[in-house]
TrEMBL record:
The gene is LOC118420984. It comes from Branchiostoma floridae. SMART domains: ANK (SM00248), Asparaginase (SM00870). The active site is at 166. Residues 660-669 have a biased composition (Low complexity). The keyword Transcription does not apply. This is asparaginase.
């Protein structure tokens, strides 16, 4: 039995020992921690803006636009639609900290968008490149730098915006779409035709729209936002140099068209009627259970060859000579070439036989390649790979990306060029079933009962009913029903009345097979419910270990949606109750077992203080450090001696008794004078929070 502390009789009714901070002081700490938690989980989103350069950040000097260093952020801070000074000041007063993020983001205060109609502030940090580039000077190394910066900061932000010049923006968007593998968060490129400092410009609306989408909607693609439209990045091309409508996506409609409001099926109802709509059916999702990663290497030995009447054989042969490895061949019409030019066809065949990859793309801005004519089939016979409806920018990026993969065979590269890797091409005969009055018996009867008569009305019914149906199927672990709903256009991330997705529901009910099914069909691990919780938080709460492992494997993490102090409190609460499953759940999810709570005491301090042998063993086996000190210089070993838990000392590190103690993370330096047991602060706050959480259902 543990010895009773000498000041046991002086314990306050709230469970605190005499000598610890006053109840009022502690309650203020608790209030601040909860307030900070609410900021992070419910009312804020964090977005990283990577400012590479471009017209949007240029300034006129001597009659021409040139990049201006360290000027964009200063300008944005004076624009009320792009920076809410009052809220930024409130964050400063509340000592807002971007915990666990790299030093740059902790040392620099964010800019803040005004409160949106969805009740959320978007906080954004600007990472400005040095030098700032005109996009004409952008090359593959710069693509790699952008990709590496996003990979380095991926876990800390909800979304990313890349400010880029318009001249090569479509090339960068296409390249990044392939370089980002298993992407689960929005990455949006934008810029402007007129600098944002000018009185009349398109930069303000473009940046504002990109930030709103990146901070509010999990559209896990590389996209391009311009003139109120969000396009898939590898489907766009620049079509005008003197118009605000500078980009177009000829073969795929926009994913979002911004109008009076942004319509999302589970948030607003009644489209179109002046409301924008996120086309969730068209959003491309990764159907893999893999963590986000980046391939920064791209092969530069690629080229673009455009056919024209009378092209000489020498030109083609010289173009196809080493070190050329991949070619985008721009042909006529639906992918045609002169079938009477046997010399050219033989040159293409010889190059293909040597291992050069040649992709056939049409010169027409709209439409794709198809072998309807003999003049198209001759290229196929020569080994030229049909490029379907890919843009030239996408085809070049795809070639460069695949050629850089050294673990892929030549035949596999040829096959992958014809596959839809990132939504860059339309697969003929592949797609979700369209909804009509006769496509589904259930919908047909429902349409008859509700007297529905148009496809638009049917879509409205689907958007209203499918979220509830999909969440119900997830609750029951009914994968076949989920599959049927997906085939009818169901959105994997559709939310119920409480903001919970089918993945949230499946994680809460422990259906590991359904969780895997949902992930393989594109469900996002980054969606949050109305309380700000991700599916990982639900899996932790219900101690579903296989599901936690699966989510972490897919890229789920604790960063950015739960504060380190809250993690420390949860660990200490589990330790106080000898809750091994709770400790295991948090540690499996990536929690640091040495994370202190609000009083700078770790779970090991608490477990030792309570005399819980099992919890001490588990924590020691999973990296707990027994020499960490609380603010009063107490280590776990000292705690065991004070509490007379001498049986626990052998369980601690064998060198703990003679190792120099050191402060826990975030702990204040230890005082030099000895601290008596009656004046120490015992970490009973864990029990306090556990009691409060039980009462609130957290």
């Amino acid at each position: 039995m543990a010895a009773t502390p000498p000041d046991e009789a002086e314990r306050k009714e709230d469970g605190l020992y005499n000598g610890s901070p006053s109840v009022t002081s502690l309650q203020r700490e608790i209030s601040l921690e909860r307030k900070a938690s609410e900021y992070t989980q419910i009312s804020e989103a964090k977005v990283l803006v990577v400012f590479t350069g471009g017209t949007i950040g240029m300034k006129a000097h001597g009659g021409v636009y040139v990049p201006e260093k360290n000027y964009l952020e200063k300008t944005l801070m004076e624009m009320p639609m792009l920076h809410d000074k009052a809220y930024a000041e409130q964050l400063k007063e509340d000592n807002f900290q971007f915990e666990n993020a790299p030093d740059f983001f902790q040392e620099n205060a964010p800019l803040v968008l005004p409160l949106s109609k969805y009740g959320k502030h978007v906080l954004y940090w600007i990472l400005e490149y040095d030098p700032i580039l005109d996009s004409c000077n952008m090359n593959m190394d710069d693509w790699g730098q952008i990709a590496a910066d996003i990979e380095k900061n991926y876990q800390y932000f909800d979304g990313f915006v890349i400010l880029h010049g318009t001249d090569t923006m479509a090339y960068t968007a296409s390249a990044l779409s392939f370089m980002f593998e298993h992407l689960g968060k929005p990455v949006i490129l934008t810029g402007s035709q007129v600098p944002i400092y000018e009185m009349r410009n398109d930069g303000r609306d473009n940046l504002l729209g990109a930030l709103l989408i990146a901070g509010h909607f999990v559209i896990p693609e590389v996209t391009l936002y311009f003139n109120n439209k969000l396009y898939r990045g590898n489907r766009v091309t620049k079509v005008a140099n003197q118009s605000f409508q500078a980009f177009d996506s000829p073969n795929l409609p926009p994913l979002v068209t911004m109008e009076v409001e942004i319509h999302v099926g589970d948030i607003l109802t009644g489209w179109p009627n002046g409301r924008s709509k996120v086309e969730w059916d068209a959003v491309f999702r990764c159907n893999t259970i893999e963590r986000f990663r980046v391939q920064t290497d791209m092969d530069p030995n690629i080229g673009l060859l455009r056919l024209f009447p009378g092209m000489s054989l020498q030109t083609v042969e010289h173009f196809l000579s080493p070190p050329m490895e991949g070619v985008v061949l721009q042909t006529y019409g639906t992918g045609n070439a002169p079938d009477g030019r046997h010399d050219l066809l033989q040159a293409f065949k010889d190059a293909s036989d040597r291992g050069i990859l040649i992709v056939n793309c049409t010169q027409c801005p709209k439409g794709g390649v198809d072998c309807y004519y003999a003049t198209g089939k001759v290229l196929l016979d020569a080994g030229v790979i049909p490029g379907a409806d890919m843009t030239v920018e996408a085809a070049l990026a795809k070639l460069s990306y695949l050629l850089a993969k050294k673990d892929v065979t030549a035949q596999e590269r040829r096959e992958l060029l014809s596959e839809n890797l990132r939504g860059e091409l339309t697969m003929v005969g592949v797609g979700k079933e369209s909804i009509s009055l006769t496509s589904n018996k259930f919908l047909r009867h429902l349409a008859r009962a509700l007297q529905l008569g148009s496809a638009e009305e049917m879509h409205a019914v689907r958007d209203a009913l499918f979220p509830a149906l999909m969440c119900a199927a997830a609750k029951n672990g009914d994968n076949s029903t989920l599959q049927a709903l997906i085939q009818q256009g169901g959105n994997m991330d559709a939310k119920d009345y409480d903001g919970r997705t089918p993945l949230h529901i499946a994680c809460s009910h422990g259906h590991a097979d359904t969780v895997e099914f949902l992930l393989k069909n594109g469900a996002s691990v980054y969606q949050r419910d109305a309380a700000g919780h991700t599916c990982l938080r639900d899996a932790i709460k219900f101690r579903n270990f296989p599901i936690i492992k699966l989510l972490v494997k897919t890229g789920a993490n604790l960063s950015n949606h739960i504060t380190p102090i809250r993690i420390g409190i949860e660990l200490c609460s589990a330790a106080a109750h000898n809750d091994i499953d709770g400790l295991r759940s948090w540690i499996l999810a990536g929690a640091d077992p040495n994370q202190p709570d609000y009083s700078s005491r770790t779970a090991l301090h608490v477990a030792v203080g309570e005399g819980h042998v099992e919890a001490v063993k588990y924590l020691m086996d999973h990296g707990a450090i027994p020499t960490l000190q609380d603010p009063h210089g107490t280590t776990a070993v000292i705690e065991a001696r004070i509490r007379d838990h001498m049986d626990l000392i052998p369980l601690l590190d064998k060198d703990a008794c003679c190792t120099e103690p050191h402060p826990a993370k975030g702990a204040a330096p230890a005082k030099e004078e000895p601290v008596s047991p009656s004046k120490r602060r015992f970490s009973l706050g864990a029990k306090f929070f556990s009691k409060k959480n039980t009462e609130s259902g957290d």
